[in-house]
Amino acid sequence: HNYVVMEAVNGQHGLETIEGVLPELVILDLNLPDISGVEVLEAMRKNPLSAETPVIILSFMEETEKTKALANVHFKKPVRPETLLNNIKQLLEQPMLEENLHENPIP
User: What are the two backbone dihedrals, phi and then psi, of residue 81, each rounded to the nearest 5 degrees?
Assistant: First the structure.
């Protein structure tokens, strides 16, 4: 897989990076040192530049109604690398499947 991966040290840095780079996909933890991952997700969805960016939540925290509505896929850690990569591939190659992936992540 030839993915370019960028990391952010906290939620605010993540939002700045997302706005500056406009990534094709974001993998987000909900437990961040400054602002919550939910706040990052809400800010992304309010910003026209990132409103449609696919988001995979990868966190020890449980899925909530809010994260279910805002993210494309939610995985509770730990997750198998193959599972994560399969979902990344599907979200990047077939954006029309986003809603279906949320209900039925690829194992």
Answer: -55, -40
* pLDDT, averaged in runs of 10, over the chain (107 residues): 90 96 96 96 96 96 94 95 95 64 57
Angle between helices 37-46 and 11-21 (to 10 degrees): 30
Q: How far, in Å, are 2, 27, 54, 68, 100 from residue 71 at the CA level?
A: 24, 10, 7, 6, 12
Please list, in sequence order, all residues whose beta carbon lies within 8 angstroms of the beta carbon of residue 54, skipping any fewer than 6 positions away. 24, 25, 26, 72, 91, 92, 95, 98
pTM of the predicted structure, to 2 decimals: 0.85
Identity of residue 47? N
Can you point out the beta strands (E) in 1-107? Answer: 26-28, 55-59, 73-76
- Residue 23 CA to residue 41 CA, distance in Å, equals 14
Our CA angle for 2, 46, 83, nearest 5°, is 35
- 77 close to 59: Cβ distance less than 8 angstroms: yes
